[in-house]
Amino acid sequence: MQEPSVTGLVVVVVVLALASAFGWWRRHRDGRLRPVATLPVATRPDESAGATLPAALTDLGVRAGTVTLVQFSSPVCAPCRATRRVLDEVRAAVDGVHLVEVGVDEHLDLARELDIWRTPTVLVVDPAGRIAQRAAGVPAKDDLVAAVTPLLAGARR
């Protein structure tokens, strides 16, 4: 009978350590709202508000002057249903927040333009039509409320 290889044991330990580190990192990052650097995108006038919005957001139904939560989802995405419940709770808790749900299968070109790589992804759009924050994964209700409240205060001035 042969002795177990030390090299094989080391490989197994390293793979388990890397998988655990990746799982921790993913769990820590998933659903967290992050500020967004402004990307150069095509803009289009919003006649209803007299402002200029990114064309991709206008095509999705986002209006200037409102705080909007845009959810990108797909039909086979289980976390998308949980995200929709969270967004509905935020809309019920905070007056003035609008929701737009976008199917990436129907709007793949716009998803690419907005740099959407996984579902669910939530964009927090300020009243000026800029994407203020984004989250990939299911965001926490409290984090969303904290993100939209100052934007709503700016919209009411």
From TrEMBL:
InterPro entries: Thioredoxin-like_sf, Thioredoxin_domain. The keyword Transmembrane applies. One of its GO terms (biological process) is cell redox homeostasis. Gene3D superfamilies: Glutaredoxin. Keywords: Membrane, Redox-active center, Transmembrane, Transmembrane helix. Residues 33-153 form the Thioredoxin domain. The keyword Secreted does not apply. This is Thioredoxin family protein. It comes from Micromonospora sp. CCTCC AA 2012012. The lineage of its organism: Bacteria, Bacillati, Actinomycetota, Actinomycetes, Micromonosporales.
